[in-house]
Design goal:
The complex is a heterodimer of chains A (142) and B (143). The relative contact order of chain A is 0.08. Chain A has six helices and no strands. The longest helix of chain A is centred in the middle third of the chain and has 28 residues. Chain A has 142 residues and is mainly α. Chain B is mainly α. Helices cover 79% and strands 0% of the residues of chain B. Chain B has seven helices and no strands. The longest helix of chain B is centred in the middle third of the chain and has 27 residues. Classes of the chains: A mainly alpha (142), B mainly alpha (143). Chains A and B meet through helix 1, helix 2, helix 3, helix 4 and helix 5 of A and helix 1, helix 2, helix 3, helix 4 and helix 5 of B.
Chain lengths: 142, 143
């Protein structure tokens, strides 16, 4: 079941990029970002309401609130704008492939901020990811 | 000079997507539920977007979107939400070491789906497929 759900996730993310590219051919990127975020937010808040989790919001003064807000600014604001704009500019296949390298960034930030150690396997993973990105950056001549 | 603005934006989005989990992790150290974190993060993103992009004619033009384009945007939003919930449940039910690498294969599905999507679909070269595969293998090794 977890593998099946993970595949559903991958298929949904994979298909999403095509819907976005097609919609941004005619719609303003501002509207696409806004409407997709609105659907995300409504779904999450409705789910929380139905599962009785909205009571969690009583603790808005706790420090984790600020951390989640910063994460939201990076993921749902800056990241989303840049991702959607890259889909519009270079197409969904290249944009999804390049942006899917985000675990490398997570790893580097974890190394710098949380002082997590890097194993040989992870160095190899970083190398392969960078090589893949290089292939996507290189343009055919002629 | 060849412009790589689109590619650089994709890399920058990867950096943003990469740093966000670090702050989510800081938040989870407080013992909070994952959905609480997602709700606050997504809500913050929506508010920031509203603050920045609602310039002249934003609302007027928004209500002019109809038909196929509106449907495509809704499908994009629903697909993202389905992915988010599927990932949440997969992580809740299984091992992260299996769930995250499988979910990271999404560029392959973009390539596969784009073959059937449209006759005018972008050209997919061996180089793009090879690059995507290397990134996915690299990410699986990292996780």
């Amino acid at each position: 079941m977890p593998v099946f759900l993970s595949l559903i996730c991958a298929m949904a993310w994979g298909g999403q990029a095509l819907f976005l590219k097609a919609s941004m051919a005619k719609a303003d990127i501002r509207h696409v970002v806004f409407l997709t975020l609105l659907i995300n937010c409504l779904s999450v808040f409705l789910w929380m309401a139905f599962s009785g989790r909205l009571t969690f919001f009583k603790g808005v003064d706790d420090p984790s609130f600020i951390h989640f807000m910063i994460a939201g600014a990076f993921n749902y604001f800056l990241g989303r704008w840049l991702y959607y704009d890259s889909i519009r500019m270079i197409g969904p296949t290249k944009a999804t492939a390049i942006s899917s390298s985000y675990p490398v960034a997570s790893l580097l930030f974890a190394f710098l901020l949380l002082e997590e150690r890097l194993s040989m396997k992870r160095y190899l993973g970083i190398g392969l990811t960078l090589l893949g990105m290089y292939l996507l950056f290189v343009r055919r001549r002629g | 000079m060849i412009s790589c603005r689109g590619e650089l934006k994709a890399v920058s989005s990867g950096l943003c997507f990469g740093i966000a989990p670090i702050f989510m992790k800081f938040g989870f150290w407080g013992g909070r539920d994952a959905f609480y974190g997602i709700a606050i993060a997504a809500g913050t993103g929506l508010l920031l977007n509203l603050a920045v992009m609602t310039g002249k004619d934003f609302w007027k033009d928004l209500f002019l979107i109809r038909g196929k384009i509106f449907l495509l945007i809704i499908l994009g939003g629903v697909a993202n939400t389905v992915a988010m919930f599927a990932l949440y449940w997969a992580v809740a039910l299984g091992e992260i070491s299996i769930v995250v690498p499988v979910s990271c294969t999404y560029p392959l599905f973009t390539i596969i789906f784009s073959r059937f999507w449209s006759k005018e679909a972008e050209e997919i070269s061996k180089r793009i497929v090879g690059g995507a595969l290397l990134i996915i293998i690299g990410v699986i090794l990292i996780l």
